[in-house]
């Protein structure tokens, strides 16, 4: 459930905040984290498994592309060339993470090092195994950020935290300090400026870890 000490904003509150403020003009980069080894999916790479006729990685990447962010980057690792080939025609830049076997934090680090220039104000992270997030959900996070409702924002559905998450550049150093097989959750949990965004989108809770998970989406 939503932590008691996290504020939570829905679409109406975000719209009201945008009307009351001068929204930030921001450069926001989308990052798809696609470096994992798919260890719970069996012998196949889950990111190449198909849903509605397309690999999962294309679904997740298109979510960010369709949100009209400044740029979309896909961080590759396991079977990088096969995943890159599956992204053919998608308007996203790919970066290989040679340290992917050391855990998710290394892909987060690769992303921050790739985009952590003064021109980048914030980053939206979406795991590559989450194929059903709506692009409007990403836009809601962006709107909440532009309305200055928080600098570390996580999508939520029905009181449950999910993905994607957005981090302002003020958190980039903290993200670089995370180690192991975790992403930005420690930074989100420890920030004094975190908030959850109630999206109404059940896709923010749907990740594909096993073949059974995939079948439930078909």
UniProtKB/TrEMBL annotation:
Domain of life (superkingdom): Archaea
Keyword Transferase recorded: yes
Pfam family, one: NTP_transf_3
MobA-like NTP transferase domain location: 30-191
The entry's keywords: Transferase
InterPro entries linked to this entry: MobA-like_NTP_Trfase, Nucleotide-diphossugar_trans
Ranges in a coiled coil: none
Single GO MF descriptor: nucleotidyltransferase activity
Protein name from the UniProt record: NTP transferase domain-containing protein
Organism: Natrinema soli
């Amino acid at each position: 459930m939503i932590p008691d000490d996290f504020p939570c904003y829905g679409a109406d509150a975000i719209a009201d905040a945008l009307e009351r403020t001068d929204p930030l003009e921001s450069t926001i980069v989308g990052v798809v984290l696609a470096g994992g080894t798919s260890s719970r999916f069996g012998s196949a790479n889950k990111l190449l498994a198909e849903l509605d006729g397309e690999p999962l990685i294309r679904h997740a990447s298109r979510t960010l592309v369709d949100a009209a962010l400044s740029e979309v980057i896909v961080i590759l690792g396991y079977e990088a060339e096969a995943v890159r080939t599956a992204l053919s025609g998608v308007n996203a830049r790919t970066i290989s993470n040679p340290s992917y076997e050391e855990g998710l934090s290394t892909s987060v680090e690769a992303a921050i090092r790739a985009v952590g220039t003064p021109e980048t104000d914030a980053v939206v992270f979406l795991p590559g195994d989450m194929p059903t997030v709506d692009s409007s959900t990403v836009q809601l996070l962006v709107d909440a950020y532009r309305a200055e409702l928080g600098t570390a924002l996580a999508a939520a559905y029905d009181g449950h935290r999910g993905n994607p998450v957005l981090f302002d550049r003020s958190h980039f150093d903290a993200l670089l300090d995370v180690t192991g097989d975790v992403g930005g959750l420690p930074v989100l949990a420890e920030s004094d400026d975190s908030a959850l965004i109630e999206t109404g989108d059940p896709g923010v809770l749907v990740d594909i870890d096993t073949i059974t998970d995939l079948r439930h989406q078909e």
